[in-house]
Design a protein that fits this description.
With 855 residues, the protein is of the alpha+beta class. Helix content is 57%, strand content 16%. Among the domains are: 189 residues, no CATH class; 220 residues, no CATH class; 163 residues, no CATH class. The strands form 3 sheets. Strands 14, 15, 16, 17, 18, 19, 20, 21, 22 and 23 form a 10-stranded mixed sheet that branches. Helix 9 packs antiparallel against helix 10 and helix 16 packs antiparallel against helix 22.
């Protein structure tokens, strides 16, 4: 009887269940789609690494400081004789010397535009060699046959509009080299998004290494020895200065690099899916609460003929189970579609995954059904429990659930305790001395304040909705008065509906406050600390000596300050060692930058001393005059005196250690110093800064990979980077907001059904269809704005607290994005208006007599 009753009730209300079903489908699709995409991407890369890895790879021994042993702009190398030594080992079938560098830049000389990705995947240039496990095949043209031939991968060629015979320029630390494309190579499995270019071995060695050597020797066995045996034999034959990795170790290293990026995507998307699931939970609670309320008399009859509380409870839960199974099944199917969409998005950025071999795995359906069913059943448990507590006589006498004054008092106490506790934690976070402590308080405060507002929502609804709707009777007459009262009629329902919107909008508002403060603080720091007029950067690569020379030749430029980042290990007087880098700067550095001096003198940096930041000095008990030992690559060491301690709170200098280039050069030969990460220009007195900027850009026109900006342009870059992050957050939170809108629609639709007789009576006494539709629209707008106000208040509290927590880390200026907040509130009113269109339309079409006769 239980299952039969549940099925009959479910199918009798299938239309009312539809929006709850959509919420489950969307949330489950996001979870399953993310998992399928992650599995497919990981599996694709695993296949690529498995089919291309050599049995053993011989590479130069890494330096403990730099994690490399190459010269600046050039990769670490192996002697040319290494190939013969490895090839002579027992069990080796072939050994091939390879030359590859990720530091070269490809340029289309016809357009002077960079070829290949500018972020994410690298651009790799090397020699073409035949190996048993090649990742690419020549699909058109031929291999490099001379010093002017180059082969380009098909995906990069297609994006750049290049073909056979097209020119291609390669810019390296040693100069610029022009080639003609002689061949196009196509990946056998997938292109991980990188741009690959190949020349002959002699040209690669001259262009990329400046010497006759290899960057690795890839070795393939004949099957008579295991990879571990080949590795041991290679290490024995070569001695020190080499490292050898088996195929399994190569695959693990490659997978680790790709996995970190994919894991970030996966967990970020699952986090937002969790938010949408939480929002969907409120929708489901509302749906079943209203269905239970509408079936009160039916539940009373069931109890009267012998049905127990547990049977009524289970009847509602079985309906939820059916809804959860159906939603999870449809969500799983929609998730496959979402995975295909994500794969297409990855193709747009160069990662050519294929949807023909989606890797689902057992974990995907398990996660989909677990998420969909558990969330649905848990959300339905509260209405089910409430249904089971209705006594038979009360249900038969009153068409509705009994008032729960005691429950409301408990709710008020619990809600106030949680909210006050969350508020106290937010205040503690804002006043914390350490960012780590403040961050912990902030996290707990966010959770408690969110739960507290959710619990208090129904109690707040009565007061806030009364205030929000106070002007409605005057503006819209009877429709406005009825809308206000309807929104206040069931505070629990209004609170749950508004909570769904509140969560999404709180996160949006908090993110907006945080990012706006970040942009304002960074701009302020640039204004206060940077005296240079121009900045030149090379993105992921370094500026070559030729680039710096070209920049220095610009007319109207007073001077150019260079900044190099030199990897190092610092040993302080307390015996602690810290892996960090020393920023080696020109003598004009203190003229272009105003260091936030805590103690000491900024001029000490260019007079042979070291600059450390306040946090580092405090941690290691350093003061001006103390000695710090610095170890650079190849065991080169020097001891420098601390000349200045910079105050914390400026992200441009926090965590940086400055010394003059001439000072570092006393320990590290100039040939071993890396290229510049950036150069800063100062216009000569009396010169037109705009014209000098144009001249500087013209001087560096041959290097399209460089970014040349003045201070205003540099601020715009920071703004665009922050905005990109913010828009991504908005997009992902959009799913939660869509689910919340579905909740508003569902609440109104079920409310219209619940009030069918009432609507009929209102129509009978003279309320027009237009007034009726207006009443429902206004009710929806009030609920949406109520949720938006709660969300905005919470978001402001979270965002302001986050800014205060990080105020000592450079986020010194609080900026409230007033325009964004106004847009959010107006958009919420619009959302409420749109959500009410269908319920209002259906209510307006009701037959008056049929509505009055409804039981």
């Amino acid at each position: 009887m239980l299952l039969k009753t549940s099925l009959r009730s479910f199918f009798a209300h299938k239309g009312r269940m539809m929006l709850s079903l959509m919420a489950i489908v969307l949330s489950v699709a996001f979870v399953s789609g993310t998992l399928v995409f992650s599995n497919t991407a990981t599996g694709t890369f695993d296949k690529l690494f498995a089919t291309t890895a050599s049995d053993i790879s011989v590479q130069p021994q890494q330096d403990k400081v730099t994690k490399d042993s190459g010269e600046p702009g050039k990769p670490a190398t192996l002697p040319i004789g290494t190939v013969q030594k490895i090839a002579a080992l027992p069990g080796v079938k072939s050994a091939v010397g390879e030359v590859f560098s990720p530091d070269a830049t490809l340029v289309n000389p016809a357009t002077n535009k960079q070829v290949g990705p500018t972020s994410g995947a690298p651009t790799i240039t090397g020699n073409w060699v035949d190996t048993p496990r090649k990742s690419l095949d020549i699909s058109s043209g031929h291999l490099p046959q001379g010093s002017h031939d180059i082969v380009l991968d098909a995906d990069t060629a297609k994006k750049a509009g290049l073909g056979l015979g097209s020119g291609l320029r390669v810019i390296t630390d040693s100069g610029s080299y022009d080639f003609a494309i002689s061949g196009i190579a196509t990946f056998k499995t997938t292109n991980p998004g990188a741009a690959l270019a190949f020349v002959d071995t002699a040209t690669a060695q001259r262009m990329l290494l400046g010497t006759t050597a290899y960057t690795s020797v890839e070795t393939y066995g004949d099957g008579s020895r295991s990879n571990e045996q080949l590795k041991a034999a290679a290490l024995g034959a070569l001695g020190s200065g080499f490292q050898v990795k088996t195929g399994e170790e190569q695959k693990a290293d490659n997978a680790k690099g790709v996995g970190s990026f994919l894991d970030f995507m996966k967990y970020a998307m699952l986090g937002f899916a969790g938010i949408s699931l939480l929002v969907g939970g409120f929708l489901i609670i509302n749906t079943f609460s209203m269905l239970v309320a509408q079936r009160t008399r039916e539940i009373g009859l069931l109890r009267a003929i012998g049905g127990s509380r547990s049977q009524v409870n289970r009847s509602v839960l079985v309906e939820a189970l059916i809804l959860g199974v159906l939603g999870s099944t449809l969500g799983l199917g929609a998730g496959l579609g979402l995975a295909m969409l994500l794969i297409q998005l990855m193709k747009a950025v160069g990662m050519n995954l294929t949807g023909a071999s989606l890797e689902i795995g057992w974990s995907v359906p398990v996660a989909a059904y677990a998420v969909g069913i558990v969330i649905t059943v848990l959300a339905a448990w509260i209405p089910a429990r409430r249904a089971g507590r209705i006594s038979p006589m009360a249900a038969l006498r009153d068409h509705g659930t009994p008032a729960e004054a005691r429950a409301n008092r408990i709710r008020a106490v619990v809600g106030l305790v949680l909210t006050l506790g969350g508020g106290a934690l937010l205040l503690a976070a804002a006043g914390a001395d350490k960012a780590a402590t403040g961050g912990a308080y902030l996290g707990y405060g966010v959770v408690l304040s969110l739960i507290g507002f959710v619990v208090l929502g129904p109690l707040l609804a009565t007061t806030v909705v009364r205030l929000l709707g106070a002007a409605l009777p005057k503006l819209f007459g009877p429709s406005g008065r009825l809308a206000q009262r309807n929104a206040m009629r069931n505070p629990r329902r209004t609170g749950a509906t508004a909570a769904a919107l509140m969560i999404g909008l709180a996160l949006v508002t908090g993110a907006s406050v945080f990012t706006s403060s970040m942009v304002s603080s960074t701009s302020s720091q640039i204004d206060k600390s940077v005296g240079a007029d121009y900045i030149v950067t090379a993105g992921r690569s370094l500026l070559t000596p030729a680039m710096v020379t070209a920049a220095k030749s610009t007319a109207g430029l007073a001077h150019l300050t260079e900044q190099k980042v030199v990897p190092a290990i610092l040993t302080t007087p307390d015996g602690a060692t810290t892996e960090n880098a020393v920023s080696a700067v020109s003598e004009t550095f203190t003229a272009d930058f105003r260091l936030p001096v805590k103690t000491g003198s900024a001029d000490a940096v260019t007079n042979g001393a070291l600059s450390v930041d306040e946090a580092f000095a405090t941690k290691h008990h350093l003061a001006v005059g103390d000695q710090v030992t610095i170890e650079y690559a190849h065991g080169r060491k020097q001891s420098l005196q601390v000349g200045v301690v910079t105050a914390t709170g400026n992200s441009l200098f926090d965590g940086h250690f400055y010394a003059a280039v001439d000072t570092v050069a006393k320990a590290v030969p100039a040939t071993e110093l890396p290229g510049d990460v950036a150069v800063f220009g100062k216009a000569a007195d009396g010169s037109d800064k705009a014209k000098v900027l144009t001249a500087l850009q013209d001087s560096l026109q041959a290097y399209p990979q460089l970014t040349v900006k003045d201070q205003a342009g540099y601020k715009e870059i920071i703004q665009s980077q922050v905005n990109t992050l913010l828009y991504m957050i908005y997009g992902l939170l959009g799913l939660a907001i869509v689910v919340a809108v579905l909740g508003v629609v569902n609440t109104l639709a079920l409310s219209v059904v619940e009030r069918t007789r009432e609507i009929g009576l209102l129509r009978a006494i003279g309320l027009s269809r237009r007034q009726l539709r207006r009443m429902i629209r206004l009710e929806s707008v009030v609920i949406a704005v109520f949720g938006a106000l709660l969300g905005t208040g919470l978001g402001l509290a979270w965002g302001i607290t986050a800014q205060r927590v990080l105020s000592g880390q450079g986020l010194a200026i609080l900026t409230i994005p007033t325009g964004t907040i106004v847009v959010i509130l107006l958009a919420s009113a619009l959302v409420g208006l749109l959500a009410a269109l269908l319920p209002a339309f259906r209510a307006g079409r009701m037959n008056v007599l049929a509505a009055i006769a409804t039981d």
